[in-house]
Amino acid sequence: SSIIHSLTHSLTHSLLRPFHQIWALGCVVYEAAALAPPFTAKNQVALAVKINEGSFSRIPAKYSDALMECISWMLTKQRELRPRTQDLLDKVGRWVLKRPGNYLVKKNSVR
Questions:
Q1: Among 11, 64, 76, 87, which is most buried by a count of CB atoms within 10 Å?
Q2: What is the spatial distance between Cα 104 and Cα 92, in angstroms, rounded to a whole number?
Q3: For residue 53, what are the contacts with CB-CB under 8 A and spacing of at least 6?
Q4: pLDDT for residue 100 is more than 80
């Protein structure tokens, strides 16, 4: 119990940093699109290794390359290369201006 409390406490404090929040947002967006988390493993050590490697599968093909690019940017292994909140808003704004309508899902996959 004390190990779990210690880990939870540590994670909670590290998530207060903006670059961790962006990474967590990337995980949430990925899971919303893929209906599965970006990193899975049979135990915590293996999960930590996968997260540290930073590789994950592409979200389903029905989603745009732009959305995958945004997720990849948020899940960048090097935290200093992750976008700031304003960077994400600027990028999404440019996508909307370039392609009004649904820019997250490819046209031929919407039914």
A1: 64
A2: 10
A3: 77
A4: no
Specify burial of residue 57 (Cβ count, 10 A radius: 0-12, 13-18, 19+).
Answer: exposed
Q: pLDDT tens for residues 57-70?
A: 999 999 988 899 99
Cα 89 to Cα 77: distance, rounded to the nearest angstrom: 21
Q: Which DSSP helix (H) or strand (E) runs through 105?
A: none
Alpha-carbon span 66 to 69, nearest angstrom: 5
- Residues 104 and 99: their CA atoms lie apart, in Å, by 10
CA dist 21 and 74 (Å) reads 9
Q: Does residue 104 sit in helix, strand or coil? A: coil
Task: Count other Cβ atoms within 10 Å, centred on residue 48.
Answer: 12
